[in-house]
Amino acid sequence: MANGEKGSATVDEEADLSETMSRIARLTSRTERFAEYDRLLESFPRHAELYFRRGLSRNLGERKAAIEDMSAAIALNPAEPATLYFRGLFNLEERDFSAAIADLEQAIIYDQELDSKYYAEPARFVIAVASLHLGDFDRALRECEGLKPNTGTYLARKMWTLDEVRTRAKKRSYPT
pLDDT digits over 20-75, tens only? Predict the structure, then answer.
C-alpha cells in the first residue's frame, strides 16, 4: 500500500514504520495494538497505511471505528483498492449495502488500473451479496458469472457461498 502523501515520512522513517507495524500486528492485546497505532498516528497523521492497519485491527468488534479508519486512509490515498475493498466489506457487515457496492466498484476500477486482479473477484462476490440484500437479483447473478467456486471465502465462512448467492438470486429470495 502506498503512503498517502509524499514526504509524510522519510525513507528511514518508512523502514522503521514498516518494522514497527509488523511488530504491532503480532501483539495479542487489542488495547496495546490500538495504543501503538494511536502513538504512531500522532507522529504521522498523514500515513494512510497506519489508518488501514488500525482499521483492520478494529474490525474485530469495532466496525464503525474500522470504517472511520478506512475512510481516513481513503482520504489520504483514494486509489488504493485494498482500503476500498475492506471498507466495502465492513459496510456490507454494517448492512449499508449501497455504500458497500460503491466502495467495491471503486476497488475493482483501481485494482484493474494497477493491472491486478487481486481484489476484483472477491469484490464482485461481495457486490453480489449486497445486491441480493437490495433485491437486485439480476445484478447478483451477473456479478457471479465467471467467478471461481472459492471466491469470497471470507463470506463463505459466514454462511455465504457462491452457490448460495446464485441460488437465492435465481429464486429471487432475500437473504435472512
Answer: 878 888 888 888 888 888 888 888 888 888 889 888 887 667 889 999 999 999 99
Distance between CA atoms of 61 and 58, rounded to whole angstroms?
7
Cα 170 to Cα 164: distance, rounded to the nearest angstrom? 10
Give me the domains of the chain, ranges plus CATH numbers. 1-77 (1.25.40), 79-176 (1.25.40)
Tell me the residue type at 144: C
Q: What pTM, to 2 d.p., does this model score?
A: 0.81
d(CA 98, CA 104): 10
CA distances from 41 to 17, 72, 83 (A): 11, 11, 17
Across the range 101-125, mean pLDDT stands at 93
Q: By C-alpha distance, which of 144, 124, 134, 145 is closest to 172?
A: 134
Kind plus residue range of the DSSP H or E element containing 35: helix 30-43
Between the ranges 28-37, 59-68, 134-143, 155-164, where is the mean pLDDT highest? Answer: 134-143
Separation between Cα atoms, residue 103 and residue 78, nearest integer Å: 11
